[in-house]
Design a protein that fits this description.
Layout: H1 7-18, E1 24-25, E2 27-31, E3 34-37, E4 47-56, E5 62-72, E6 75-81, E7 87-94, E8 97-102, H2 114-123, H3 126-131, E9 137-142, E10 145-150, E11 153-161, E12 169-174, E13 179-185
Antiparallel strand pairs: 1-8, 2-3, 4-5, 4-13, 5-6, 6-7, 7-8, 9-10, 10-11, 11-12, 12-13
């Protein structure tokens, strides 16, 4: 028995619709129980940068991605690629919406939406970041160091090296998750 002619079209419909998902909310969990409402891209500096981003996960697992990040025209865009140049995912923030386009399966412990949150935490003016923090969450900003705290306990720290955004390098740590991120700006 031959399948109906339109069956193949019906089977493709969910795949097509999955690629056309509505943008998600701009609230991101930067750690368990720590929501952060992303700032408007306009609140941050305008820039374009290529960076090498090394993630160190608990248990010694490491992941390295190359990131092209641009904040211009009211849109923050982040394109993450493998070291060989394969696009892994694209994250775009516009206003209060976050759109994620994944090109390959992403490990469950890596939510691509956390990356623009970390970019903003490191680069946006401290007052803009504070506006996105929930109750009981504070930001301490002193010189080249920022610390995100929840009820007095460290959630994320970032130490920046360089004169202005985007910095030459940054080290971000989340002691509760046992995770760290090492970021190095690549020369153009």
């Amino acid at each position: 028995m031959r399948p109906p002619r339109n069956l193949s079209r019906l089977l493709l419909l969910p795949l097509l619709l999955a690629g056309c998902r509505a943008p998600e909310t701009a609230t991101v969990q930067v750690a368990p129980g720590v929501p952060f409402r992303l700032c408007a891209p306009e609140a941050g500096p305008e820039f374009f940068v290529n960076q090498e981003v090394r993630f160190q996960f608990p248990g010694g697992r490491q992941e390295t991605v190359m990131a092209a990040i641009e904040n211009r025209g009211g849109r923050l865009s982040l394109v993450a690629s493998s070291a060989m140049g394969q696009t892994l995912f694209i994250v775009r923030v516009k206003g209060t919406a976050v759109a994620v386009d994944t090109r390959i399966p992403i490990p469950g412990d890596l939510d691509p939406r956390i990356l623009p949150a970390l970019v903003e935490f490191a680069l946006w003016p401290a007052e803009a970041v504070r506006a996105g923090l929930g109750e009981g969450i504070t930001l301490a900003a002193e010189g080249d160091r920022r610390t995100l705290l929840r009820k007095g306990k460290v959630v994320w720290t970032v130490v920046r090296d360089g004169a202005a955004p985007p910095f030459r390098s940054m080290v971000m740590d989340n002691p509760a998750l046992g995770m760290s991120v090492r970021i190095r700006t690549l020369e153009d």
